Structure formats: structure tokens, C-alpha cells
Amino acid sequence: MAKLHDEVERRRTFAIIAHPDAGKTTLTEKLLLFGGAIQMAGAVKARGDRRRGAHSDWMKVERERGISVASSVMSYEYRGRAFNLLDTPGHEDFSEDTYRTLTAVDSAVMVIDAAKGIEEQTRKLFEVCRLRDVPIVTFINKMDREARDPFELLDEIEQSLALDLAPMSWPIGMGQSFKGCYDLMDDKLILMAKGSHDAPDGGQTCEGLDDPKLDELLPNSAVTTLREEVEMARGLCQEFDLESFRAGTMTPVFFGSAVNNFGVRELLEGLTRHAPPPRPQPTAEREVAPDEDKVSAFVFKIQANMDPKHRDRIAFARICSGHFKRGMKLKHLRSAKTLTVHNPVMFLARDRELAEEAWPGDIIGIPNHGNLRIGDGLTEGEELHFTGIPSFAPELLQRVRAEDPMRAKHLGRAVEQLAEEGAAKAFRTRIGSDWIVGVVGALQFDVLADRIRTEYEIPVRFEQAALFTARWVVGDDPAELKRFSDSHNGDLAEDHDGMTVFLARNGWHLQHTAEEWPNLRFLKTREQMA
Ligand code: G4P
């Protein structure tokens, strides 16, 4: 099993988290460029360009699912390491997909716009990483623009995210006068080659900051400031400590300008040296170590296939342990059925041999007809329930109606399928059999309406439902549950699996009902029921 151990040790599976516009797409492209997967870089860029357009453009991109499947996972090799970069769909709206993707990574790069600092989405995504102690590498981007003072930025990150910071590079100037960085890891001066889109060379090695070479290469004032600032930074910040970083309490910080290819090599170098290999995965039964020889995997994302005429979907599964080979038979734990994985979509498809297999930390895409769901486990037989895959209580609820009553019958199936995919929550009211759809971000309603129209050919509209929130209702005493059910018929619905859901009209309604029925539990997520 030495081979398994070696493959685990060289895998680095990570995601980039950022507030929209901070430079995630640009950085992704540049990381791929440095990692040698250049042909893909164009695709990422094209997608990013369109995504910045209006909502309708974004939906068009969503529909071009070929692109999103291909760029959902981007794999490249750099200095003997096999990197898997998982794309987190990025738009202003809260996206569950993004959060679930973060359950499948072992580290994350947090991109911060140097002029803006920590923004709302950065903070939310960071909190999700923190829940699982995911180590974070910070990249302060856009140093070629007028930026905030580096000390002020570091202070803000430290204060607002409660993280220890360890600068790995230090910027020399900013905006128009941005010259480059001093690499504190390797004592190197790295100057930005302006106007060039080629990667800058490896930089000038120095014998520390006192090296007279610096005085030759930089204007006087810049060297003086650099020396002063680094001294101050070293006094104020802690030294990089691998253990603290891997425990998620310390973040190494790099400064750069992704659009100018600047600082990307150092970031990649930092990831290569410090980012952790695949972590053990928690399950309800035990922790699964990546170098166990039996294969195990869990599904963290479902994507409808590119062809709207077929109901195929791709389930993205992270390999948690063992050496996966194409054609392998795995037990699908929820259904207890055997699944032969004939045609997995692999992302290490640079050569044929690699495409036939996957190792812990890798992602495989499994085409299926809807039998695989988010959170499902696949093993060689052992009962393992993977935990920690977040599900969110819908914060916005609306009633969905088919424009054409003749198509209403088919609407239910469409809504159920989207719910199974994890794109929304769907509840069928006991009275009236209406479909109530629950989401966490308002933009999701537009996306859903668009998908139901194009993929199922049912034009629909969403209407206000005057509902506040939904809670799954469980209790230990079936008689009590029945009493509750009988007396609250008008407030109840079933989800796509037939579980009972209480639809609250407002906060008081929820609180009052919960107080009236102290022996029942009103759960925010179904996962809490497991
Ligand atoms: P996102 O995926 O996080 O939303 O950000 P994206 O990479 O799309 O970048 C957002 C904008 O910021 C883009 O400009 C991009 O070119 C620019 N950008 C990224 N990195 C840097 C940097 O280091 N310095 C500067 N000055 N700009 C940067 P845009 O005008 O929206 O698009 P484009 O026409 O330039 O592509």
C-alpha cells in the first residue's frame, strides 16, 4: 500500500473563497497557468467574463452545464504535487452549493481585495471553513491599485476573523508605485514585470533584508520603507507555524496582483509546501483515514446534466480512502444497492492512464438518474454515514405555479427532482397540494424558474406565500405526532421524501407552536434528524 500512501501524501484539494470581484476567477486562471493546465485557463476566464453580466447571462452560463461540469474541478500538477481546485460558484447570492463544496476540500485560499479588506461574502465563507477547521491561505490581491495600508489590512483580518497572521511576503509600494514583494519565506526580492503577461522569473535571492543588492535594485526610499515595515511586521505578527496553520488558527498571508501574474508563484509555492494532504473524514461510526485500503466516498454536489432532454445528473463525490478504479462496484449506503461506477467523469484526464483511477482527495463525477443525493456515502460494503455536510433551513418560501394548468401535473416531478438535486427545498401542502419552494437566496427563484422552463418545458411563476420559515417536525411518541398532525393540517406539508414539515407564518407562530408542543422537535434541517 506504499503507492496509496504516496498518492495521498501528494494530493492537495482546495478551493478559493472570495467576495465577488475580489479576483477569484483571475487567480484560478493564473494558478492553472502556473500549474501547466493552460488550455483550461481560457475556459475559466470566458466563464468569469460572462458571469459578471446580468442575471440572465449567469443563467445562460448555468445552462451551459458542459462548462460548469468541466470547470467544477480543475486538476493540475506542480512540483510533484497533484492539486485539485474545486470551483465554488460565485455570485452575490448565498449559495448552498458553495458551502457544500467546502466540505470536500482540505484547505482554502481566501482572496481579499486590497482596497476593500474583508467583505461580507468572505466572512460567511470563512465561517464555513472555520466550522471544519479548514486551513486558510490568504492572498491580498490588486496591490497594483490604490490599496489600503498593509498593516491596517492585516489588523482587520486578525480582528474580524480572529486568526493569527503570518506574512509570507511583504509588498513594496502600492498602486502606481507598486514594485513587487519581498519574499519572506525564501529571502528573495521579486519585482513585478509591468505590462508583461509572462510569469516573472523566480526573483533575486538576497542575503536577508540588509543585503546591499536591495539598495541597487530598489529606489532608496522604497528600501528604507521595506526594511522598516518588515521589521515592524515581524514584531507584530507571529512567525509562520505549520501546526497552527493546519489546525486552522493561523493564516499565511501573500500579497500580489493576480491580473499581473504577480505573487501567484509564491502562493503556489506556499500551497505546495504547507497545504495539508487529504484529511481523515468524520462519519457517525468512526473516522476514515485516507490511506485505508478500502474505497469510500461521499457525494457533496449534484449537477443536472448538459442535455436537458435527459434527466441524467452528475454526482460529485470526494474519494475519502482507498484506490478507486473505473468499473468498481460500490455500495450505495442509503439504498443498500450496489452501484457499478462504469463511466465516472474524471478530472485528471490529462492522459488515459490517470483517467482510469482516482485517489483520496480526488473528485469523481458519477452520472446517474437521480438515485445519488447530497450526503450519500459509497463504500466497499462498510456502513459509514458521512457527517458535516451542511443543509440550510430555507429562509425564503414561495408558491410555484405552472402558467399552463395542463402542465401542472408535471410540475411536481420537476420540483421534486430539483429538490433531490439539492437546488432548493420543496414542500407539498397538505391542503390544496400546492408546491412551496424554499431557498436561501432570492436569486435562486429566478434560476429555478429558468431551469424548470428550459429543462422541463414548464413555464412557471413564483408567488408570495406569506410564509416565514419551515421546520421538520419529529417526536418520539407517534400518538403525539398524530395529534399534532391532525390539529395543524393547514400548516403542514411534506418534503420530497414524505417527511412532515411545519410551515410557519411568522416568528411568533413558530415559537408559539413549539411552546405548545414541548415534546416535539422543530428542526431547522433534515440532517439533524439522522
Ligand atoms: P471574481 O471571480 O472574484 O468575481 O473576480 P474576477 O477574477 O472576475 O476579477 C474581478 C475584476 O478584478 C476583473 O476586472 C479583473 O480583471 C480584476 N482584477 C483581478 N485581479 C486584479 C489585480 O490584481 N489587479 C487589478 N487591477 N485588477 C484585478 P473587470 O474589469 O471586472 O473585468 P476584466 O474586463 O478586466 O476581465
Structure overview:
The protein is α+β, with helices and mostly antiparallel strands. The chain folds into three domains: 11-73 and 91-274, P-loop containing nucleotide triphosphate hydrolases (Rossmann fold); 281-379, P-loop containing nucleotide triphosphate hydrolases (Rossmann fold), CATH 3.40.50.300; 393-527, Alpha-Beta Plaits (2-Layer Sandwich). 32% of the residues lie in helices and 27% in strands. The chain contains 17 helices and 30 strands. The strands form six sheets. Strands 26-23-25-24-28-29-27-30 form an eight-stranded antiparallel sheet. Helix 2 (24-34) runs antiparallel to helix 3. It is globular. Bound molecules: guanosine-5',3'-tetraphosphate. Guanosine-5',3'-tetraphosphate is lined by residues 18, 20-26, 48-49, 52, 90, 141-142, 144-145, 257-260.
- Helices and strands: which structural class? alpha+beta
Shape: globular
Kindly provide the name of the CATH class of the largest domain. Answer: Alpha Beta
Give Rg in angstroms. 25 Å
Mean pLDDT: 85
How would a crystallographer describe the biggest sheet?
A: 8 strands, antiparallel
Instruction: State the domain count.
Output: 3
Outline:
It is built from 17 helices and 30 strands. The protein has 530 residues and is α+β, with helices and mostly antiparallel strands.
Which key terms come to mind for this protein?
3 domains, binds guanosine-5',3'-tetraphosphate, 7-stranded mixed beta sheet, 530 residues, Rossmann fold, globular, alpha+beta, Alpha-Beta Plaits, 8-stranded antiparallel beta sheet
